[in-house]
Amino acid sequence: MSSQAEMPNGALNHHSHIVVVGAGAMGCYFGGMLIKAGHKVTFVDVNPEQIATINTRGIILETDDGLHQMPATAALAKDVSVPAHLIILFTKTLHTNVAMASIRHVITPTTVVLSLQNGLGSAERIGHFVNADRIVIGTTLVPADLKEHGYVVSHGPSKSQIMDASLKFPAWLSDVEKLLNKATLTTEIEPEISSVIWSKVAFNAALNAICAITGTTVGRLAVSPCFRELARNVVHETVLIGEANGVSLDECYIWNNVEMAINEHPNHKPSMLQDIEAARATEVGAINNAIVDAATGVGMDAPVNRTLGQLVALTEQVKCH
Ligand SMILES: NC(=O)C1=CN([C@@H]2O[C@H](COP(=O)(O)OP(=O)(O)OC[C@H]3O[C@@H](n4cnc5c(N)ncnc54)[C@H](OP(=O)(O)O)[C@@H]3O)[C@@H](O)[C@H]2O)C=CC1
Ligand SMILES: CC(C)(CO)C(=O)C(=O)O
């Protein structure tokens, strides 16, 4: 494996050591696609069974172009010793701090940390461990369902949008974009990243929360007009709050993404629903509740998001205890 010394200025290329932190649905999908494209990837997780299965069976991806199985390496954070050129963080947002602290020893001054986690506040959380000028934030519409440990199902079109958190557009940002696109993880650089993140949080605040509460997929809910009415109210309220926080948002664009998910990803279980089914805490704190906090910060209320946040909390309590 190449050492950091062989990568002047932290340039990212085919020899880079990529550490995927969080070997769940998204981590296995992105990491698996990168291995398939020839990259050296180490998966880090806290679940010993997940680690053992990945080490023995590799990563299995079930996608529109068939079934792919790739040998892979996974470990607990403490057992990874090779410095990371790129860390791709795919834990749930509520585990970001613990995960970043556990992997601190492989972070060098040139390590880039990429987060496509849902919700608000990722750059701030990662910023406790890495300078903003080495953090890449963004969003992804990739739908990933974990069927078994290391086995991910992902169908339908998708794309990711990224930008460095310091908004300086460094040269290596294009390396990250190229690296992902070469692995057919369709990605574009989007300088208006706050708009992108707020647009995605509006989308997740509607779809993820409603699916988690009702226990079903977008495809099944979309037959009811009241689903669209509720989802529209969530998106509208979130847009007003985002704009009051100085973020420019296009409600039609967000709604088109909701319609895209209804039509193209009907059977995907949004990640919040996957959490409820696995009796895990959800990301409602970084999604609906974070929108409520952003509203409070500018003297507004967010009754629709507040109610959905409460319903998700009740659902968690019923299913997870
Ligand atoms: N799934 C999807 O379709 C999409 C998800 N996202 C976002 O991507 C992020 C990841 O989601 P997803 O892949 O679904 O989540 P998963 O729950 O499937 O995977 C997260 C993984 O991280 C592990 N983990 C927990 N704590 C740590 C830690 N301290 N160090 C290392 N690993 C840890 C979890 O283990 P354990 O289960 O034992 O806690 C789990 O294996 C979320 O922010 C989500 O909102 C975005 C777009 C689509
Ligand atoms: C795949 C997508 C876009 C659908 O809600 C998502 O963000 C999630 O599952 O969390």
TrEMBL record:
Per UniProt, residues of the Ketopantoate reductase C-terminal domain are 193-313
User: Which reaction(s) does its UniProt entry say it catalyses?
Assistant: (R)-pantoate + NADP(+) = 2-dehydropantoate + NADPH + H(+)
Q: Which SUPFAM superfamilies match?
A: 6-phosphogluconate dehydrogenase C-terminal domain-like (SSF48179), NAD(P)-binding Rossmann-fold domains (SSF51735)
Supply the EC number(s). 1.1.1.169
What top-tier enzyme class does this entry carry?
oxidoreductase
Cellular compartments per GO CC: cytoplasm
Q: What is this protein's record name? A: 2-dehydropantoate 2-reductase
Q: What is the lineage of its organism?
A: Bacteria, Pseudomonadati, Pseudomonadota, Gammaproteobacteria, Oceanospirillales
